[in-house]
Specification:
single chain; 188 residues; alpha/beta; Rossmann fold; 2 domains; six-stranded mixed beta sheet; three-stranded mixed beta sheet; 7 helices
Length: 188
């Protein structure tokens, strides 16, 4: 997550990130990254169990990067619900950006590519009792977590990681960059 954060901080000088992880050892790794010194004033670290209510309120956006594929459906719903109280206190249009692998519909990719993706799905099942999900499965998790979640158009990438914009009970849709950081929409 921090490598992604550093990249976005370098790209957008008005962003601030709060990197959260339950594991304190993981949180100590961020300052060891080569480019950290360039962004250290705009990054903070916080130990947090995402099965408990999100303590950060009034964020511009929350980012779940490669998180949900590690958990079964019930745990994912718990994780997504943990954001609801913070989202209710945040500005209109604040949402969650899910950056995870999204499985394509069957028979829509070359067989060799689809086979590799399905093997990864089986590995997640065997190793973690978790799974990779299709876009419709992500939508189902969000609906089950809170019916006010609305999913925007996903952004697919060549590396199979997809950005799923999930805005909480949309009062307006934010266009442009999304992430789990304090987000100044008025900044240049």
């Amino acid at each position: 997550m921090l490598t992604f954060s550093i990249c976005k901080l370098q790209q957008f000088p008005n962003l601030e990130f709060i990197v959260q992880d339950i594991n304190p050892v993981m949180l100590t790794q961020g300052p060891k990254l080569p480019a950290f010194d360039q962004v250290q004033e705009r990054v903070s670290f916080m130990q947090y169990d995402f099965c408990t209510p999100q303590p950060i309120q009034h964020a511009g956006l929350f980012l779940l990067r490669q998180v949900l594929h590690n958990y079964n459906d019930d745990k994912c719903v718990t994780i997504l619900r943990s954001f609801v109280p913070a989202l209710e206190k945040s500005a209109p249009g604040t949402g969650i950006l899910i950056n995870d692998m999204v499985l394509p519909a069957a028979n829509t990719k070359p067989k060799v590519e689809e086979h590799a993706l399905r093997q990864l799905d089986m590995a997640m099942l065997g190793g973690y009792a978790a799974k990779q999900r299709t876009l419709n499965e992500f939508k189902g998790l969000l609906e089950k977590a809170d019916s006010r979640f609305k999913v925007g158009a996903p952004t697919f990438s060549a590396c199979c990681l997809t950005l799923i914009q999930c805005i909480s009970w949309p009062r307006y849709m934010v266009k442009g960059l999304w992430g789990c950081w304090k987000f100044n929409l008025n900044a240049s």
